[in-house]
Amino acid sequence: MFVCQALLVSFLVSWTLPFVLLSAESVDKNVDPKKVVKIGVILPAENSYPYSLPRTLPAIEYAIETVERDPNLLPGYTLQINTNDSRCSDTYGPLAAVHMQVNKRAHVFLGPSCEYAVAPVARFSPVWNIPLLSAGALVTAFRNKKRDYKLLTRIQGTYVKAGEFIYTISRYYNWTKIGLIFHDRSHAPNVMRSKCFFETEGIYVLWKERYKIRPWHLTFNEHHNKSDIKKILKEASYHTRSKLHLFPISRSQKR
After folding, report:
1. Mean pLDDT value of segment 200-227
2. pTM of this prediction?
3. Fold of 2-154
4. 112 contacts 88 by C-beta, under 8 angstroms
5. DSSP label of 14
6. What span, in angstroms and rounded, lies between the C-alpha atoms of 194 and 129?
7. Which fold has domain 159-254?
8. Helix (H, G, I), strand (E, B) or coil at 87
């Protein structure tokens, strides 16, 4: 319990600490194996991701040092970090977890954080009895704790929470019809949905649950020069009565 609390803090401060690379097998051979708590960190090695190994490992080290300095927290135990590169992939993320489970290198998983990487690992973890903590897994489907994601703990606000925020504002202004306009990729098989899709899904699902109606929505490709924003907004005016048209902004748009 205390280890989990310390590691939760580590995620929150991960982007503020310098990079320190930790050895995956640095435990003293004289230490009793039964007194070793193995922490399996499954995150992308590529530093462009917000929760990458280079950004997060220093914070995890800081959290472990905090635990080890307190004689009341896990006295006599050694905390060991083992890492694997998830590549933010729905293939390599699960393989990294399987590798750790087969080789007995994790009593708890930190990550993956990318939606498609964490989903299968979070489904495996109850079978292996290995809890999973993630700064990702924000998608609505991860609410299902009774069946698929029993040992998943998410440590920050989810997209459904954003939906509750929009719902609260809408109730205050008596907005009952909204339009959801967002960037998405092709709907072809094996093509991952966009981050904008998942962000907007939280609003869509909550709206459908509370009002028992499906909000009008329209997708466009922000990378396609022929996207006609004026035409999209005109169509939105035919289906909605409020001034609330939601455009989740991607990184490329912010630049």
Report:
1. 81
2. 0.73
3. Rossmann fold (3.40.50)
4. yes
5. G
6. 31
7. Rossmann fold (3.40.50)
8. coil
